[in-house]
Amino acid sequence: MLGLLAAGILLPTAALAQANKDAAPKKLYCWNENGQRKCADSLPPEAMAAAREEINVRSGMRTGEVQRALTDEERAAQAEEEAKRKTEALAAETRRRTDQAMLTSFQTEDELRRVFAERVNLVDNSINTARYNVASLREGLVTLLRTAGERELSGKPVPDKLAGDIRVRHAQLLYHTALQASFERQRAELDVEIEQIMQRYRELKASDAPGARVALDLPPAPKQ
């Protein structure tokens, strides 16, 4: 008796589930394969990564579209492009904040130039020290070479210690000469950097002037 009752309950439930399944709109999947359009009511494994359309069988209307899966190279390129976009956006925001900081922190060009004074003095001192070392090492090397030359001219052998000192002093001279050139290059680059920042400051000041802000339809600059 209980078995019949259970069967009586389960049969309508199963019938209802089947009816719902039959009532669900069936889909037709269409995709291109080797230049040919193919359609089926189920998607084969080889078409899973392909771009496809989903079409309602009853209405014949397209109900959805799935783009093809990206290749590893395309995913890498997409990630690189996204990283580039974020980096550029961050750089733009950093520049905006830097520009605003310049306007609010410095009232005149002289105030801004004083910020660079310490860097300029540091590089200048390094150049002067390098020049002194180069001159001193060159003078010492000339003395050692003269001594070695005089011994050779007099028919005497050049001692190993003297020859070793000449090699060491020559290596030191080459090193400090390269160091001097590096400091002088830094100084030239610093001059260019300062001039570029000063030019940017002048442009910001000009655009921040009341007349310019009205012409550009910008809000008034904040009071200091």
From TrEMBL:
Keywords in alphabetical order, please.
Coiled coil, Signal
* Coiled-coil ranges (or none): 69-97, 180-207
- Superkingdom of the source? Bacteria
Q: Which residues form the signal peptide?
A: 1-17
Q: Is Coiled coil given among the entry's keywords?
A: yes
| Name under which the protein is recorded | DUF4124 domain-containing protein
- What are the top taxonomic ranks of the organism? Bacteria, Pseudomonadati, Pseudomonadota, Gammaproteobacteria, Lysobacterales
